[in-house]
Amino acid sequence: GAGVSQSPSNKVTEKGKDVELRCDPISGHTALYWYRQSLGQGLEFLIYFQGNSAPDKSGLPSDRFSAERTGGSVSTLTIQRTQQEDSAVYLCASSLVRVNTEAFFGQGTRLTVV
Amino acid sequence: DAKTTQPPSMDCAEGRAANLPCNHSTISGNEYVYWYRQIHSQGPQYIIHGLKNNETNEMASLIITEDRKSSTLILPHATLRDTAVYYCIVRGFNNNAGNMLTFGGGTRLMVKP
Predict the structure, then answer these.
(1) CA-based nearest distance B97→chain A, Å
(2) What is the three-state SS of chain A?
(3) Interface test with B, best of A46, A99, A101, A109 (most B CBs within 10 A)
(4) Residue B26 and residue B75: Cα distance in Å, rounded?
(5) Residue B108 and residue B92: Cα distance in Å, rounded?
(6) How far apart are CA B38 and CA B55, in angstroms?
(7) What residues of chain B lie within 8 A of the CB of A106, using their CB?
(8) Residue from A45, A102, A109 to probe the interface with B (highest B Cβ count within 10 Å)
(9) Which DSSP letter does residue B5 get?
(10) pLDDT one-digit tens code per residue, B6-56
(11) 8 A C-beta contact, residue A110 and residue A20
(12) How far apart (Å, rounded) are the C-alpha atoms in residues A50 and A94?
């Protein structure tokens, strides 16, 4: 596709349920980032994948959060036993791993935990 | 990545130039200055980046001081659609973590008619 694609665009889930959010990066982009943005707040880094290297998980807020990137392309962010404070927009970005390149963002998944 | 400091908000009259400052006094020699913006309810959009020379593209100009400790993003003729939060980011590429994009608070630019 032409850009970073995220699905679903909106997700409403009940507290305690698990959710999976998907990110399709731009073809050929080996770096992939997940962020979340709570209402009226800035972007909070969650996790970063670069090629075959071990991901940087330093931003994951708890062990309920995990992410995978299969085949170096599509990534899935999983939130287990969702809580109301998990409600936010989850944003994915991808880039080439090369000096002097930009990262491109998807439109995000708006997660609402009720 | 080095920290950046931006004013939390700015106003600009429609049609005038918007000059958004950013301080990055701890930037190191191999780190680039990137600018993104986020229009309400959308994902961040790349604007421009530079290392030490001034840069210009169809969206904006980036002026980096000679000591590289600060920069200014210039939108030459601001329109109402330029109302957004503008993020200045310093980004290195020298190791695994160096490709990170770390967002600060940004500057909320309000373009007024």
Answers:
(1) 8
(2) CCCCEEECCEEEECCCCCEEEEEECCCCCCEEEEEEECCCCCCEEEEEEECCCCCECCCCCCCCEEEEEHHHCCEEEEECCCCHHHCEEEEEEEECCCCCCCCEECCCEEEEEC
(3) A99
(4) 25
(5) 25
(6) 21
(7) 43
(8) A102
(9) B
(10) 999 999 999 999 999 999 999 988 889 999 999 988 899 999 999 999 999
(11) no
(12) 10
pLDDT of residue B104: 85
- In this predicted model, what pLDDT tens digit does every residue of A77-113 receive, in sequence order? 999 999 999 999 999 999 987 777 889 999 999 999 9
What residues in A contact B43, CB-CB < 8 Å?
A: 4, 91, 93, 105-108
In 10 A of CB B109, how many CB atoms? 21
Average pLDDT (A54-70) is 93
Measured CA to CA, the distance from residue A5 to residue A1 in angstroms comes to: 8
Closest CA to A48 of B97, B34, B47: B97
Token output for A54: 């071990």
